[in-house]
Amino acid sequence: MDIIPLILFNEKVNRLDNCRLTKRMAHPRYKIQHNKIMNLDWIAVDGVSPDDVDAFVLNLRLLIQDSDEFSIRCLSKIYEKDEVPKELSEAFAEQRQKWKTHLISMTLIKKPRRNEKYSNDELFNILFYGGLAHQDKKYIKEFLVLTKQGAFSAFVFGFFLSSLNTILNVVRNIQEINKKLIEISKR
């Protein structure tokens, strides 16, 4: 079994763990900075800068996009193999399901001019692909609307942090599962 993708995934999780935003999320008592809200900054909490968010997102991107052979989806192909112990396959599938369950749940944020709320998936995609990791035409307009509204945008950022915490926990748990599979593969 090729364990290189597992090793690369784990290395990227270590990089993610070393990001300033990760360290800040470990102590989530955020204080809103009113001067940032007045400047229409959507990242308006103490101890978090746009550079901190960028570093986190750019490291996370490697783990959730399929450009590299070690994304979560790519690892799922490894965990589907018969040679992988059932308990590790199930543990991996459980972590993927945690992220999927989070994504389908609804936020409290209403869509502009519509009487419906964003799902975590919609909000994550707009923020992640509309201006943080990429500037996808499909999302950029809504990204700009959601991130340039002062206090409302700070509220949006709070929901985004919730998603980042969820995926951080998922990738950390997958890292532990990977360690077990790497150890088994070395025998």
Write a short abstract of this structure.
This protein has 187 residues and is mainly α. It has helices at 4-17, 20-25, 34-38, 50-64, 72-79, 86-104, 120-132, 137-147, 151-186; strands at residues 106-110, 117-119.
Tell me the Rg in angstroms. 18 Å
Helix content: 55-70%
Domain count, please report it: 1
Biggest β-sheet: count, sense, barrel? 2 strands, antiparallel
Distance between the termini: 12 Å
Q: What is the H-and-E element order?
A: HHHHHHEEHHH
**Which consecutive residue ranges, at least 5 long each, have pLDDT under 50?**
none
What fraction of residues sit in β-strands? under 5%
User: What's the overall average pLDDT, rounded?
Assistant: 92
Number of helices: 9
Give the strand order of the largest sheet, numbering strands 1, 2, ... along the chain: 1-2
> What coarse outline follows from CA principal-axis ratios?
elongated
Structural class: mainly alpha
The overall strand count is 2
